[in-house]
């Protein structure tokens, strides 16, 4: 209705979905968002993808939680998840805020006082603001008393961050995405930006038009591969073989940057010795890329004036994810392709604030700004800042917490805006663990699959209903502004966290969100120079920004690396096979990921009219020849099973995957594919192996 589309208010904000961090304007009429436009932000220059442009009406969905809920005493924590409103009130009863908060905080405090501080854990959210992430981790560390706090970074780039911190002393990107326009050569490996970082993909395509040569390396042929100068379709799980073979070529052909290695790095001799055993001839049959192509791409990357690497979950979500990232770091260091515009390392961050939430300390081994909890100086600093003794033992990670619950080590949890019942590997096990908790508090905007297992549900605010800062994949800190009011009795998350803190014995009384940001910048040197006023004025400031007036540094490591010696470190890696290889019982491979139209576990985008209309049903992408071998047609229902569970969904013929590998998005609750995935962890990043497990497939089943 055109009349309805005339806004009575416009509010400048940022996109709530991916880490690109596009700036946008909400157009509001009568407290409803009617349409969204792109703004001239540093990351998007007015561009938006389909999610940013159309993915807003979830905020107005009739299934929004609007009243606090308490689980009925006789409602079992079992059975299938149901969104049927009649079923919901069979399981939960409505409560006042006072009653719900007393029940939520009281039960967690009792568990802490009876079973000790490490009997509790909290999951924060990469969808929340920096200030929410900061207060949430502070609540766990000071109110619960342990470091058992984590969030979905553990499921996406934890291994990349582990390798980056170890190798170059910083877990964030070295150069912004936009630097692809300054690069001669860009390698995109294990990432599908057209789907997962769509506006970033447009900058890559613009760069190609201006002469940049793109190399795409991925077992799945992404859309971007069609624009690539070279596409390397390596076999799933063989990243280290391919990357070590490239490094072997660079060493063998004398293409290393000797000056850079001598002046800026340590550990090169061990790396050189290690890659000596990985000749392209030996690795070609393993990774499935011919030796000449490996050599060609290695030369191209090493000899260009500026080469840049971007990567995604295809690199990180393996039990050897840290090794994969170590190889990418070594590639950049040995060729000196870092520390200048158009070069560097860019792990494409997934959620809109996964960078900021990690920076703010929403991880179990680090205080804000990656200051280790077991470092005595850091511990003393935060004990002084927060005015109480803190736990110096690193806490448990996401998957470790799910395994600690059945052992009785974790008895109560507070989950804000995450949905582990859908997003965790081996989701049947994760759901059983959540159901086994003595007390589970969930703070969310919808009755998610996780909230369905809660004892108390606290109705929270959606992204456009609150103000806060968000840090994108480029280290840009930007403001998301409140555009509409929360529905019913739903409250802003900062208020809810503070109410919970008070029930746990903390005397918190923050007013405006800027008061939280001010506290953060006092103890986080990386953002010390960013004031709230400046954010309001400039909309976006890049960190590191250590003093007021500092313009911020989009390109880092220009002179030295933030390690003790100032030098980066090479860490060699050898081939480690996937935890669960195909065999005669489970002969195929499952790869999980996202779709363009849907976001993560689907709680927002599946309640967005346009996006859900484009992709309404759970689908599996199957190679046409594999589908034909099953006797199936596109659109048929297939059942996929692993050793941990099975799901039925529709088959879509798709020749972008290699034969024998099936790709399934993890956003469909009717076919929750994480029931099948493997919870085996990378030993360094503690990230699960979402990108590889053994499955079998049969025609038929019921969706
Ligand atoms: Fe939002 Fe990412 Fe799309 Fe930009 S590219 S509009 S940040 S989902």
Automatic annotation (TrEMBL):
Q: What is this protein called?
A: Formate dehydrogenase subunit alpha
Family in the record: In the C-terminal section; belongs to the prokaryotic molybdopterin-containing oxidoreductase family.
Q: Which UniProt keywords apply?
A: 4Fe-4S, Iron, Iron-sulfur, Metal-binding, Oxidoreductase, Repeat
Record flagged with keyword Iron: yes
Q: Has keyword Repeat? A: yes
Write out the coiled-coil annotation as residue ranges. none
Q: Where is the 4Fe-4S Mo/W bis-MGD-type domain?
A: 8-63
